[in-house]
Design goal:
It is built from 4 helices and 11 strands; from the N terminus they run E-E-E-H-H-H-E-E-E-E-E-E-H-E-E. With about 190 residues, the chain is of the alpha+beta class.
């Protein structure tokens, strides 16, 4: 591969005509002959592409709240990439891909709590911090990221009201309540 430095400070990227490609690698610009990438189109390749396409379609039907969960638990990658990776690994292991459980709670009296919040922690990581100013909150959680701690907050005061070690075993909590803070949330059916 022939590398050509651009002494004018212009960055080249992509195809130049039909025979050359300009690119950058680790800050060094270069030009090389264009080589059409191979497309083996083998049975394994078609199967892998099909699995990836199914994973993308599964991502597309998730709700915004479910997307937010993946965005918040992803570490060093996007939520999309985390979901796709988990989906493909599950299928390869012969398991059903995990879909985050949608959970919605409303205030027991139907009134908003203007300075109230529901905070959900996955281990030490804050995955949701949702205002109660509409009197309704929605989160989405995956069993594989348990344990979860549910915290109610009013102003600067907060109380951990529930710890769920196994979401599949216990399911979505029906009531989240802090008598101290005067907040009671009930699951919306």
């Amino acid at each position: 591969m022939t590398r050509i430095s651009n002494i004018f400070g212009t960055t080249f990227s992509g195809r130049i005509g039909k025979k050359m490609v300009a690119a950058s690698w680790k800050g060094h610009e270069y030009v090389r002959t264009y080589v059409k990438p191979p497309n083996p189109n083998t049975e394994n390749q078609r199967e892998a592409r099909g699995m990836f396409a199914k994973a993308v379609k599964a991502w597309q039907v998730l709700s915004d709240t479910q997307h937010q969960l993946y965005d918040r638990i992803a570490n060093g990658m996007s939520g999309f990439n985390l979901f796709i990776s988990r989906y493909i690994m599950a299928v390869q292991d012969g398991e059903e891909p995990e879909t985050p459980m949608q959970m919605t709670w409303v205030t027991a009296d139907g009134q908003p709590v203007k300075i109230g919040k529901l905070v959900v922690l996955a281990g030490e990581r804050r995955v949701f911090d949702v205002s109660l100013k509409k009197g309704r909150v929605e989160v989405a959680l995956t069993p594989s990221d348990s344990p979860y701690t549910f915290v109610l907050r009013r102003g600067t005061a907060e109380e951990a009201v529930l710890k769920v070690r196994d979401l599949l075993e216990t399911g979505a909590p029906k009531v989240l309540e802090s008598e101290t803070l005067g907040i009671r949330l009930v699951a919306e059916t």
